[in-house]
Backbone:
């Protein structure tokens, strides 16, 4: 667990690491990986927001899974837990 007072900073660090990895992927010519990271980069912003962004988070995950079908299980797992279905 991250201390509450450090949570926003931790999300910012995570987002910066994603941006860094995305830049490295583009430099290496790994455009597919870079595009995935480009989408993933937005997710920490939803977590940091004080408003309920659950629906938008799920929509972003669904969009990622449309382009990257191997990620579909991640969407299903999140959707199940966010609806209370086990």
Residues:
């Amino acid at each position: 667990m991250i201390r509450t007072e450090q949570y926003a900073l931790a999300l910012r660090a995570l987002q910066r690491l994603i941006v860094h990895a995305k830049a490295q992927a583009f430099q290496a010519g790994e455009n597919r990986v870079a595009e995935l990271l480009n989408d993933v980069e937005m997710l920490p912003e939803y977590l940091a927001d004080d408003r309920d962004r659950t629906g938008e988070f799920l929509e972003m995950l669904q969009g990622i899974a449309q382009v990257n079908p191997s990620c579909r299980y991640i969407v299903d797992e999140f959707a199940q837990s966010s609806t209370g279905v086990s």
Remarks:
- Residues 4-82 form one domain.
- The longest helix spans residues 7-27.
